[in-house]
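Bench notes, afternoon.
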Amino acid sequence: MDRFSASLGLRLRAARRQRGWSLGELESYTGGEFKASVVGAYERGERALSVQRLVRLAEIYAVPPSELLPLGSQERGVLIDLDVAADAKDGDLIDRYLAAIHFLRREGRPDEVRDSDKAVIASLLDSTVEVASGPD
């Protein structure tokens, strides 16, 4: 899987989760227009997504299509206010998630958090995430 597909998949998953839907709920909401298995493959970066299907998913998720597209080196970074996150209802979950990824990877700096990690944390925090311009 290439980096673009992986990043696109993360954005698709985050947009779906922002709506609070499971893959099955998305399939039901769209009357079968988007099968859970197909969207899951899009989200894992295992299946190519046409522009038409991307635009349709953006409509369903009520976001501009550009919000779903990874922008390469110009991609916007996600800034997470860790003080706000610690006070959030999911603060303990986020702490445990960060500890788990550092333990499992056992590589890089201990304070390094990848873009994919930030996307997961952003989906947990919902409204406590601020998107900033420029690379992270």
